[in-house]
Amino acid sequence: MTTNQLIKKFGKPNITGVPYLTTIQLPYPMRLAWDLDVSVTRMSCHKDVANDFKNVFDDLLYYYGLEHLKSLEIDLFGGCFNYRKKRNGTSWSTHAWAIAIDLNPAKNGLKTKWADAQFSQPEYQPMIDIFYANNFISYGVEYDFDAMHFEHV
Asked: What tens digit of pLDDT does each residue of 12-22 get?
């Protein structure tokens, strides 16, 4: 979506996220991608997509189980709400609305081509399918870069 479409659908982003943010409890602990000793048990996201986020995490846990999620590093949380512009851009990042999440950024980075991303491997296809079934797209699949980024549509 364009910035104007996002504003029409979700309102203007703001630094505090008020009044559009809500906090969801995660069904399993995630690890902060840049400090694996930090556990993430809750996440702030846009209230209009909170149920879809909850469904994604519930479905991931059901399909993979906690130990398999961890071994595949699907539990590495790279962030959701971040009031900022797109990198090297002038329009708002979808993270400013908290309608996107980054997972395991070290192995699925912004400039990593899809074929080289961890998430392009066959064992991650069920994860990709779960995101799509819950109204998200993968930038890796759609745009061949930024495979860590899953965005609500």
From this structure: 999 999 899 99
Q: What are phi and psi of 106, to 5 degrees?
A: -65, -35
- How far is 38 from 34, CA to CA, in rounded Å? 9
The pLDDT tens digits for 49-73 are 999 999 999 999 999 999 999 999 9
Instruction: Give the pairing type, strands 136-138 and 100-103.
Output: unpaired
Q: Do strands 76-79 and 21-32 pair parallel, antiparallel, or not at all (unpaired)?
A: parallel
d(CA 146, CA 79): 14
Distance CA 102, CA 108 (A): 9
Domain 3-152 matching CATH 3.30.1380: the answer reads: yes
- Yes or no: say if 57 and 127 are a contact pair by the CB < 8 Å rule: no
**Domain ranges for the chain:** 3-152
Residue 87: what pLDDT?
A: 82
